[in-house]
Amino acid sequence: MHSDRIMRDARLVVEALPNAEIFAAERSLRQLCGIHVILLNLDDPWLSQSEVGALTGLVLDTGLTLENFLNGPPPPHNISTRTLPPSGRGRPRYALDLDRAIELHDMGNPWAGVADALGVRRQTLYNHLERAGLSSGRRPFTSISDEELDEKIVSISLHHPFAGSNIMSGHLEAIGIHVSIRRIQESLWRVDAIGVLVRWNGVIKRRVYHVRGANALWHMDGNEKLRPWGFYRSTTVELLFMHAVSIYGWPSRMRGDYGKENNGVERRMNARWGDAHRSYIRGRSTQNIRMERGWRDVRKDTLEFFREIFMFLEANDLLDMENPVHRVCLFIVFQPRIQQSLDETISSWNLHKVRTAGNKTPQAIYQLSREKAINRGYWTGDPGDDINTASDSAYGQDPDAPLPPLDELQEDPAAPDYFEYPNVSAEREAGILVNDDDEVQEFKNILAGMDLSSDDGNWGIDHYCQAVVAVTENFMTQ
């Protein structure tokens, strides 16, 4: 069994050539040499000489391929970097995409990192920029007064009241305003001093996290904070995953918990990479707490705001989730608002600065890693770590990250559940599906004359109450 695993892992390394990690090839070659020695000294009456010879030949063929790779010249770090036709003596000039280089730099990446991703030296990149008359200076800050900045931050804070300075920076970048983090902090003190103190109390201490690069490992988890109010359905997860794949490409591996909502993604990953690749790594939520950092920002920036609204409605007897009119009107009025807020959170999070990554944004980290993978030649293959690294039980874990809330840990499944609900009725009985599509459409038809998407000046509460009254009157007159 152990030898079979070594052979499978070695074949995966061979399939990844020439883009395999050097140490992965060396490790597999050492292990194959050990198997070869065992086969030469094997004395097993149950195996014929021809069977032993076939196994030995397979080991030698695989080992020879790895040995040739290791003994050959190292693969160039710029195999995809184009050059111009020769125009005289000396080496041909590189044909660099300077617009892309400036784009990567403006995201917050240093020129040394941009040059490395493009497969050239930093001085070479500087020379190309100089010949093209392009500046290598930092992206200039937006010219905006303190009063105008305060107005923008107040406007954002109304919809994202728990956003701190880093996330606020991402919101401003998303609308084209580039200012220093110091000015944002000063503005928050001017317009929301109490909020600053509240947010300071919940700061997470960051730790460094490392995988090979972009698309090596994706973390996934379902968020159920708004589930009590009908904003949850497990089948959404697989659809969102495939949408992400269509934008960013296939990840090499995924890490998720044992929740039923992850089953569809696990099937997709295994179909793409095969079981031997360890393409979907499942465990308890405590093994995927890297994701908890992301959820903390989402909760602060979006979900907690709506939880407070829904609890306010219930506390004032304006919302009863057992009442279908209340339940469906709540969904119709607030689902677009929640989605808009989440979209804004995505934009701001992708553009916020991560301290442990040299204050680079997630977008800058991803794009630079992607450019590097393209120029190294492995972006369209397997962008992940070697199988031995990924087989480590701690792969993709962050033991210093914050644990999920206790209420979530109490409901955390300890093993996969592959039971599938046979129909919508079964989903509703299990609490997975709350609002039926036909039911929602019926209510939308009744409310067609109302502009529920407009700003009512009360975070959607007035529109919700008006919708409940209108639907109730409609049913009473039938």
UniProtKB/TrEMBL annotation:
Domain Integrase core, residue spans: 233-367
InterPro entries: Integrase_dom_put
Residues covered by region (Disordered): 71-90, 377-416
Organism: Mycena sanguinolenta
Name of the protein in its database record: Integrase catalytic domain-containing protein
Pfam families assigned to the protein according to its UniProt record, in alphabetical order: rva_4
